[in-house]
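Friendly challenge for the regulars: who can give me the structure tokens for this chain first? No prize, just bragging rights.
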Amino acid sequence: VMAAPPRPQVNMAAMGGGGVEAMAATREAGELFEYAVKEPISLPRRQSAMIAIVNQTVKGEKLSIFNAQVNPKNPLNGVELENTSGLFLMQGPVTVFEDGMYAGDARLTDTQRGEKRLLAYALDLAGEAKLDRKSEPDEIVSMKIARGTLTLQRKFVDTAVYTLKNKRDKTRQYLIE
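First reply, four minutes later:
Bragging rights claimed.
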């Protein structure tokens, strides 16, 4: 039985520019939301900028996510984020802070109020993971001939063994994708 790790703060502020103060006001517009920039932003020609639209703390459960196709040696630091902001969150960049310190960046897909999303934001170097796959040759389980048709039933066995190692002193929850 694993004890639940402390919940990280997920700060929905975009990276870059002038800090993490939200630079836009949000209001409900029918079933959608309007994000109106508070002050005009001037950019030189052929330049771009990211501005913080939402800057709120939302609920999240910290975990390590292992997907051998993403990284075969290490899991990713992740969070199961719950949109408790009361706003519809449009897709875009998210900066994650843990205990008030920068932890990483992720990309959020469109998220309704109360909806949960899985975000991976950094490589988890304090965890090791390994996937061993074994396939047994297929074998014929049964054969049947009826009205000139041969029907074979075959059995395929594919085994996946995941080995996870936690190098931390505290308990960690792992999710295998």
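The CA atoms of residues 31 and 88 lie 9 Å apart. The radius of gyration is 24 Å. Your move, everyone else.
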